[in-house]
Amino acid sequence: MSITTPKTCIEKWDNISPSERGRNCSVCQTEVxxxxxxxxxxxxG
Length: 45
Fold this sequence. Notes:
Number of domains: 1
Low-confidence stretches: none
Helix content: 10-25%
Largest sheet: 3 strands, antiparallel
Shape: globular
Order of helices and strands: EEEH
Number of strands: 3
Strand content: 15-25%
Strand order of the largest sheet: 1-2-3
């Protein structure tokens, strides 16, 4: 499985403010979610 995003955020993860599900980038106004430790079923579901 691969996940693609139409617009990627160029901010460094450590510079983005924490949010409930990941981090909220003030530059691109997007909540960025780190799926690194998620199971595939949790991402799909």
